[in-house]
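Q: Second attempt. The first request was missing the SMILES, so the protein and S-adenosylmethionine are both included now.
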Amino acid sequence: MNIAVAGETFSITVEPASNIDLSLPVAESEEGSTTPAQPEEEIPRGTTPYLETLATIHRVLEPAMYLEIGVWQGNSLAQAHCPAIGIDPLPDIKATLAPEVQLFSMTSDQFFSERAHQVLSGPVDMAFIDGMHLLEFVLRDFMYVERHAGPGSLIVLDDAFPAHPAQAARKRRTGTWMGDVWKLYPVLSQVRPDLFLLPINTWPAGLLLVAGLDPTNGTLWHTYNQIVRHLSINLDPPQEVLDRVGVYPPTVIEPFLHVLKSLRHAAAPPAQAVTELRAIASRL
Ligand SMILES: C[S@@+](CC[C@H](N)C(=O)[O-])C[C@H]1O[C@@H](n2cnc3c(N)ncnc32)[C@H](O)[C@@H]1O
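A: Got both inputs this time. The predicted holo structure:
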């Protein structure tokens, strides 16, 4: 299959082995600049705060199990009022968390290799991925969480829309930093066309909502090494990514969430969710 991301084109094949190589990328191909950030490099986009949109998702979806990667001070985890798992190697909790929240002070790689099988007995209805802002980390986080998804599950990815190329550098030098998480949208669109993707225009970093998740789909596991080898380089995000072209306002999301909630207990195949969600999207 041919993949194109910001002018970088390459072909990948579905490999027989699904062993993902955690040592990739072997070396950063380009050093980031050490020049201090200019004021215009720090300006984010969007007006609706992402925490407001997360609160809406919790209110409508009412997840029975919520999982968050990248907790920091707990502001996003505090939106959960249900049994929840937070994963962060360096949490610095300042917010008040619900009593059902379990915190795991470790990386997401450690959590999913050592603890997930003990603590995740049922599906994760909603996940928020906001850990390390590098493509290979968010791609793995997505792959890990999808293995625990049910028919009505939703994955919310933060940092999908940098507003300036400096914010998208793989080596951080700006305060407002989304890294190269933006690449996941074109990667998922091309490698997993079976998924439903909804980009949302929140402040400061934009969100990507992903549904139609299929825990049995191994395509990313069989192509991960090739994707990371090709794309873990500094690439300027295309202008339409910076301008958030085709990105929806947060006001559109509720009908999608109602569909997902209705599918939670149905033995529905992922394709059914995708068909219903695309029908709503076609009317936007
Ligand atoms: C942007 S902050 C999270 C903010 C939080 N989600 C919120 O909205 O309030 C990113 C967090 O990811 C954590 N992090 C970094 N690498 C990680 C990894 N490999 N696994 C899980 N968390 C990681 C950092 O320690 C940091 O606290």
